[in-house]
Design a protein that fits this description.
Elements (H helix, E strand, L loop, with lengths): L14 E5 L3 H12 L3 E5 L3 H9 L4 E2 L9 E6 L6 H11 L2 E6 L5 H9 L10 E3 L20 E4 L7 H13 L3 E4 L2 H25 L5 H5 L3 H7 L6 H10 L1 H32 L13 H15 L14 E8 L4 H11 L6 E6 L5 E8 L4 H10 L3 E2 L4
Parallel strand pairs: 1-2, 1-4, 2-3, 4-5, 7-8
Antiparallel strand pairs: 6-7, 9-11, 9-12, 10-11
The structure holds nicotinamide-adenine-dinucleotide and prephenic acid.
């Protein structure tokens, strides 16, 4: 690691080792590679390691071939194994400084202390960017752009270690934020862990929903339940390690939901008692708790800082293209884009059950939209830019 640059106060990272090449480890590695940092990778799962290497996230760690320890080792493994993996990495002298990315911090710190890890070189971290998918195949170099990245060093941490991990977060495009581990755990209970459970609770209702109801699913339910698609075993582990703070938030959410259900029952009963037909009728005073929750919900939503995730991500324009639901259709669409010399940055497919057609939403840089729309239209595709 280069000396902290006087004045700029920034560490220089030349080589970083990522231990655990899943979604988060590989995303960090890709972000660092884009900044020309040399990245060495390790994962006990050789398939994940190979895929991460093939994606350009770095080269496999070969300890015997390295002349010096890496500047930082990032432990990007599930929370429960982080202390043991840290201890092993420190025993092997993998790096000068160590960090992790686990979604919980108090239990990681306690585990590390119990195992006798060197706390001077360990700066626990938590990037607040992620996805509901796991594994290196879901990794993205821009996953942390504009996101907060919590750092929870103990009083024993060397300032140089903190500076190095701060620089790691910045190189990934994130905003580092130093806070104490327990405060971190209470904060993420509110903004991440309880929301995940609430999302799962809504999504779990869909298991018993009939096909017609699911056919009507629009963007609202997709937004609310996206994170419920996360890995249940990883989330059970996260919740186990932050059980108290999450339970506190969920009790309050449950109280709001219970009060709302009661109020709606009362509204339904009061309205049908006064209405001439059996349909639920005009609003009564019973709706007051519901109005109150909706108003507080709107206020809470308004408090989520707008800048995170919005400013520095590339702005893509989405163009919908109708595709026949048949083998090879997507391949032909991508080939047509390649012939037009346009890179498709991302793609999402919407299927309408029962229809022989689907919609491919192509994510493009704005300057590529006209070229592709014209080329696809000329090739006979049904293209709908601006929809
Ligand atoms: N998924 C998210 O949105 C998100 C966001 C921020 C932080 N995190 C945290 O990041 C960490 C990794 O999560 P992920 O989503 O990348 O999961 P993942 O399942 O995609 O990857 C985990 C990787 O850790 C590896 N691993 C397991 N045991 C290991 C060990 N003993 N030593 C080294 N590697 C080991 C696995 O083989 C796997 O490749 C977790 O601690 C999680 O709490 C996740
Ligand atoms: O965007 C998502 O899919 C996430 O769930 C990411 C998210 C979050 O709650 O914001 C989830 C868990 C992590 O520890 C950090 C980030």
């Amino acid at each position: 690691m280069g000396e902290e640059t006087a004045g700029a106060g920034r560490a220089e990272l030349r080589r970083v080792t990522v231990v655990g090449t899943g979604l988060i480890g590989t995303s960090i590695a890709l972000a660092l590679r884009a900044r020309d940092v040399d990245v060495t990778l390790f994962d006990p799962d050789t398939a994940s390691l190979r895929l991460a290497c093939d994606l350009g996230a770095g080269r496999p760690l070969d300890e015997t071939a390295e002349s010096a320890p890496a500047d930082i080792a990032v432990i990007a493994a599930p929370p429960a194994v982080v202390p043991a993996v840290l201890r092993q990495a420190q025993d092997r002298g993998l790096a000068q400084v160590y960090t992790d990315v686990a979604s919980v911090k108090s239990s990681v710190l306690e585990g590390a202390e119990q195992l006798g890890c060197d706390m001077a070189t360990f700066v626990p971290g938590h990037p607040m960017g992620g996805r509901e998918k796991h594994g290196p195949g879901a990794a993205r170099a821009d996953l942390f752009l504009g996101r907060s990245w919590a750092l929870c060093p103990t009083g024993k941490a060397d300032p140089g270690s903190v500076a190095a991990v701060t620089e790691l977060a910045r190189l990934c495009g994130a905003d580092p934020l130093v806070l104490e581990a327990q405060a971190h755990d209470r904060a993420v209970a509110l903004v991440s862990h309880a929301p995940h459970v609430a999302s799962s609770a809504v999504a779990a209702r869909l298991v018993g929903g009939d096909e017609t109801a699911l056919t009507l699913a629009g963007q609202g339910v997709r937004d609310v339940t996206r994170i419920a698609g996360g890995d249940p075993s990883m989330w059970a582990e996260i919740l186990t390690h932050n059980a108290g703070p999450v339970a506190d938030v969920l009790r309050e959410v449950a109280a709001d939901l219970a009060a709302t259900a009661e109020a709606l029952h009362a509204q339904s009963a009061a309205a049908s008692a006064t209405a001439s037909d059996s349909a639920d009728g005009p609003e009564t005073d019973e709706m007051e708790p519901v109005r109150d929750l909706l108003a507080r919900g709107r206020s809470g939503h308004g408090r989520i800082p707008g800048k995170h995730g919005a400013v520095r991500r590339p702005e893509y324009t989405v163009i919908p293209v109708v595709i026949p639901d048949e083998p090879g259709a997507l391949g032909r669409l991508f080939a047509a884009a390649a012939t037009a010399g346009v890179n498709i940055e991302d793609v999402r497919i919407e299927h309408t059950p029962g229809l022989p057609l689907g919609v491919a939403e192509l994510y493009l840089l704005p300057e590529a939209v006209d070229t592709l729309a014209e080329a696809l239209s000329a090739d006979g595709w049904s293209v709908h830019p601006g929809v």
